[in-house]
Amino acid sequence: MNSNSNSGKKNQNMNVFRILLIVLAIFALSCKEEVVPFTPAHENLAAKLLSENQILLEEYLKDNPKPNWKVFSETLDALGASGHPKFKAWAETLHPLLPTDGTDLETSYEKISKIQEILIQIKTEVPNQTKYNRFYCPMVDKFWLMTGREVKNPYAPEMRDCGELIQ
Prior knowledge:
Elements: H1 2-30, H2 40-60, H3 70-80, H4 85-94, H5 105-125, E1 132-137, E2 142-147, E3 164-166
Antiparallel strand pairs: 1-2, 1-3
């Protein structure tokens, strides 16, 4: 009688264990991050941000660059306020990277490089952002986004044509 009692308890414990596993599995599946689709308005915001990036990088191509990050920053604010969770996260990550003094080129280049990495994510994840191409310079080990197919390296004034178009 004692072995039947132990056998019954084992079966009961196994059933409880199975139920707990099922509940845990359901809970784990329900915790997946909700995927919020990008609307045409979101696509337009992303396009505006990439356009402002283009303007800034073209300024850095000049002999004596004087970049103005104001419009980029305002566009970033709109991105963060759009209500889309990914846009909010990107804006929160990008804001601290904005150069405070665009004329300090060495500091700006490092920040711009980090900004470009996030903009590449935006270009990749937000639909209809095909106007911009990704470039890479192995000499400075940095990426950037610009229109066209011609290499115009914003990081290395002495070698503007150093880099390659990445497909």
